[in-house]
Amino acid sequence: MEKPDCETTARLCDPDRFFCAMFLPQAIRTAAFTLIALNCELSKALVLPVSGTVTGPMAGLIRLQWWRDVIESPEQGRQSRHEIAVALADLLESGVVRKAPLLTLIDAREAELCRLADWTAWRSAMLDGAGMMQRMVGELLGIEDETILAAVTRAGAAFGTGLLVRYLPQVLLSGRMPLPEEVFTDVGLSAHADSEDLLESARLSTIVSTLKREGLAFLPDRKEIRRARLAMLPAILARRDLSRPPVATGAVRGVGDRLAVMGVGVRGR
After folding, report:
1. Residues 67, 99: contact at Cβ < 8 Å?
2. pLDDT, tens only, 22-63
3. What is the model's pTM?
4. Cβ–Cβ under 8 Å, residues 242 and 158
5. Interatomic CA distance for residues 17 and 140, integer angstroms
């Protein structure tokens, strides 16, 4: 069976970022698909197996280290013949993307895997994770102004937070723990409680409210979004996700969300 390419992986694994990337200039679209596909691979490390309470995060750490080695030595990725690693090696060797932001992205995933202690650590991980993903898109677009790039980073963090709100019950049931350990005491639980205990209705409502406040604090204002429209497209989805409750399992994006992104995306070209 033929291995899926980065575009296919991005479309299947992360349809929201993929849809936003479709409005980018053709010249950088392939690079954006590679970054999205890489992020999908890194996210796999965050889902612990059923035996995670026994084995800890070791399997995930090994996966993340493999990708760290690929970034540090692109030739290793090329020799592996892994479709995404080979595409990433091409971007690194051609100078289209830099090592530093990619390594920051991995560090953020590792921080989540090893459990974030409090909301301060969580904010840093969101900016270095989902935020860095979007900053790299801004850099692909040729944005160099640090003020704008900082706003783009916050847009990415807001988008990541909005996705947490949208899919929180499903994420928690998957074995991933994207919230700080402090959240357990926030809702009256022991720090050693199981993450599924957070799904109780009143507790979940409290957590969702907190995430919405955090996400809105990240979200750039409309003036900032207009300064870098194509780099800010996920912020359009973030604003909508942060105004709604989590969705049911299997729910797909409505046409309203897609039209909102299209409206900004077309004007940004």
Report:
1. no
2. 999 999 999 999 999 999 999 999 986 643 444 568 889 999
3. 0.94
4. yes
5. 15
